[in-house]
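Researcher: Structure prediction, please.
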Amino acid sequence: MRRKVNHLLLTLGRRVPIKQIATVTLMLGLGVAGIYAQPGNVSAEVSGSAARSTISLQGTPASEYQLAGTGSLGQFTLRVLSTSLAAPQRSTTCSGPTKVYFPTVAGAGILRSQDGSLLKVSLTGGGDCIDFAVGGAVCTRVLQVTSGTGRFTNSSGTVTLTMTVVPVLADGPTSPVFFSVTGDLTGSVAGAASNQGSQNGQP
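Model: Predicted structure follows.
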């Protein structure tokens, strides 16, 4: 690559002013950097539903999120299981007279891309900020990549799932059991092969 750049500059030097050569050098430098800089940033919108799972984690029934998304990873489905502490905790990001905060303590998830590749993640943090004034919650799940298959075989990284969760069905006046979910998935997943089957999240 360096030989090609030097040859091009020598050729240009016979025909164009020094100022234009400097501009070309900068552009070539940025182009070369772009070839090697592949941060694997993730940005996707998700939506779906949530309910209590039949699976228990640490002796407590887990919450289960069944989501579909589209974005930088193409089209995918995402299933996440997690459980939270039984007692609310103090939080600087979830405070107010109508809010309570429950940190998550265990969980995992599987993202399945449209081509069948799997990205397996483990929960490392997050929590649920329930606001009784609006009748919903903002839930976050911090997920670390543990392994993968297909185009995610050599992947690593961390993503954050941020969700707005609203009850749609209750078993009594104070016992919601089924929820709608909207939100986004952000973070970084390095080492994933490009999704040849989609472009801009479309099949």
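Model: The mean pLDDT is 84.
Researcher: Thanks, that helps.
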